[in-house]
Amino acid sequence: MSRAKFGFAAHPDAIADLRQLPDSVRDQALLHLQDLVHGERVAKRLEGRLEGCHKIYLGVGDQWASHRLVVQFRDAPPATKHAREVYLVAAGPRLDYAVYRSAQNRLGRTGLNLPTGLGPAEEARVHAARARSVRPAPAGGTGPAYTTASPGYPSNSAPRRAR
Hints:
The chain is α+β, with helices and mostly antiparallel strands. It has helices at residues 12-20, 23-37, 98-107, 120-132, and strands at 7-10, 44-45, 53-58, 67-75, 84-93.
């Protein structure tokens, strides 16, 4: 087995999430997490309120994509031997976006950062203005290149499949 490229950490509630998964899905989740730590698996980027997070599809049989893991690739604490770590934010069913809501709550990304003290009419105007606004293109190019590959993933090998 290869050496770990990343450290691993988890939100305390994410550990409880793993314990509540069905046995076959939990086994698959643990294998996926091991592969992420070793740099042998990709995770798809999330957008919006979970920008900076990645998702991993879980499920078996006819329920193939029924569950998700939500992880972050972030700087590891200075006392560890790894520069980066895989941080498990949430694990759970995709149904009704439950796992994504859990991740948003744990990361404190449940709402828009609105100025305090706004009345309902002013708040509605701020929401409408933000919805109409367009982000300007970055200067000096066509913008950043995006990939669905996780950091550290070797592009010349195939990811392992869950058993």
